[in-house]
Structures are given as C-alpha cells and as structure tokens.
Amino acid sequence: MNTLTGKTALVTGASRGIGRATALALAQAGAQIIVHYGRGASEAKAVVAEITAAGSRARCLQADLAESDGPHRLARHVRAIVGERLDILVANAGIAKAATLEETGVEDFDELFAVNVRAPYFLVQQLLPIMCKGSSVTLLSSLAAHVVIGELSAYSATKGAVDTLVRHLAADLGPRGIRVNAVAPGVVNTAMSSFIRTDEGRQMTLNLQAIKRLAEPDDIAAAITFLASDQARWTTGATLHVDGGSKLQAR
Ligand SMILES: NC(=O)c1ccc[n+]([C@@H]2O[C@H](COP(=O)([O-])OP(=O)(O)OC[C@H]3O[C@@H](n4cnc5c(N)ncnc54)[C@H](OP(=O)(O)O)[C@@H]3O)[C@@H](O)[C@H]2O)c1
To answer: Residue with the nearest Cα to atom 43 of ligand 1?
Structure first.
C-alpha cells in the first residue's frame, strides 16, 4: 500500500541492517528516501540503486555521527536536498559494545553516547525547522533498556536515554503536530548481533522469545513504517516493543 506517497524520509544508518530494511520499506510505501551512511558508501549506493530500480526516488548522504558536528552537517545537506519539508526522520544509526563495567573505557562510553543519544538529539533539533504538522520521528531503543541481557550496561544506558528523550520530545513537539516514538527491538539478525548466527547464540535468543524464530531487519522495519504512517496518528511518546515477546516474564 502506498501510504507514504509524496512524503520525504531520512533514515540514518541505512547502509545495512535495520536502517537498510527501513529505507526499503518506506520506499515501498511510496516515500522518497535519503539513505544516510557512515563508512558504508558502496552499501548505501546499493540501497539507493535498489530503491530506484523499484521505481521510487532515493539519494545517499554521508556523515560521521560520532563527530560532534556530524548531525549538524547531515541536517544541512538534508535541507539542501529536500528544501522546506521533511516528513519522516528515522534516527536508527547506532553502535553497541559488549563490555563489563571493568572493561569499559571512557572513550568507548563517550562514543556510545555520541552516536546513540547525542546524534539523534541534535538531528531532531537541526531538522525541526523543516518538520511540519504530520511529521514523525522514530528513534531506536532496545530490549536492553528494559531488561538485563549480556554485558551491555553502557549501551543499555544509551537506550534508556532514548526512551526518556522520546517522552520529552513528544511532549515538546506534540503542539506542533509532530509525533515522536521509539521502537525497541530484541535481538535482530544484523551485524550488530552477529552472535545469533552461532548455534549457541541462536538458542539463547530463541529462549528469550515467546515467538520461536529469529528476528530479521524487516520485522523491525514494518513497525517503523507503521509509526511513520497516518495509521499511527494518535501514537506519540511511546516505545513500541518489537521483540517477538522477549523476556515477557521479566518485564
Ligand atoms: N541488531 C539488534 O539486535 C538490535 C537490537 C536492539 C536495537 N538495535 C538498534 O537498532 C539500530 C540499528 O542496528 P543494526 O542492528 O541495524 O546495526 P548495524 O547492522 O550494525 O548497522 C548500524 C548502522 O549505523 C551506522 N553507523 C554506526 N556508527 C555510525 C557513525 N559513527 N556515523 C554514521 N553512521 C553510523 C552504520 O553505518 P556505516 O556502516 O555506513 O558506517 C550502519 O548503517 C541501532 O540503533 C541499534 O542499537 C539493534
């Protein structure tokens, strides 16, 4: 269904994983896409080629979101392309580092917060002038923000911050008609969670979930596409759990 025809979307970290699947899903729903990437230029170009081959419009833009002015530079380039209107922002780019408290260094901690929290925050700030009534923002939280899994305390704290931001930004931007939500995936089959490609990792993941199969990126993209659409017009300030019923007993 072309529910997003005429809309323009920016998806950060769309060179692979959940961001790539989201860019493809939003394009399939009719939106024009800006495919943001960090290091994966050839992967991002391949996503653009796939979208244009299917008859939709897409461009790619590079920005390192670990740099303090990365979101500002990206927003400037986006504004130069789309002009005065951005309908959909999916701030998906993120990094994870599995490490114990003792192993976590200050640089790693700062980079996690820079990419996962600071970048979405300033991207929303810098793109706000071109977001209008009906625009939507979706951030990426995680199951790890809500339950303890693995050695992920610093990463999980970034996702807890995302959940908090969603409520505050939704309250701030609601009067302008802009919705802000997050999706919180469980373990998804991407490079970030490549441990699920081992027998042990697969079994551990299946043991977490009510639904007994591994999550693929398009399972998450479907929920993000819903949140970006008018079907979610009354949903804001929410973190949507998209995790196959992971750790239901523990929540
Ligand atoms: N996979 C999971 O199990 C899982 C679970 C819960 C939440 N999440 C969240 O979902 C989001 C996407 O995760 P994923 O699994 O799709 O990860 P992924 O496959 O590792 O992809 C990460 C994406 O983020 C981009 N990125 C990372 N650091 C960047 C930087 N400094 N500057 C610009 N772009 C950067 C990468 O771009 P380049 O490759 O082009 O540099 C890539 O496109 C993240 O926010 C993650 O925390 C994932």
So the answer is: 13
> Phi then psi for 236, rounded to 5 degrees?
-150, 150
Expressed in angstroms and rounded, the spacing between residue 122 Cα and the centre of ligand 1 is 17
Read off the pLDDT of residues 147-183 as tens digits, 9 standing for 90 and up: 999 899 999 999 999 999 999 999 999 999 999 999 9
Query: Closest ligand 1 atom, CA of 215?
Result: 3
CA of 236 to the centre of ligand 1 (A): 23
Give percent helix, percent strand, percent coil of the chain, each to the nearest 5.
50, 15, 35
Model confidence pLDDT, tens digit, residues 20-35: 999 999 999 999 999 9
Nearest C-alpha to atom 1 of ligand 1 is from which residue? 188
Q: Tell me the fold of 8-241.
A: Rossmann fold (3.40.50)
> For residue 93, how far is its CA from the centre of ligand 1 (angstroms)?
4
Q: What is the pTM of this model?
A: 0.98
Give me the helices (H) in 103-236, please: 106-113, 119-127, 153-173, 199-208, 217-228
With beta carbons less than 8 A apart as the criterion, state whether 138 and 182 touch.
Answer: yes
The pLDDT of residue 249 is 80
Domain borders along the chain are 8-241
Is pLDDT of 107 > 90? yes
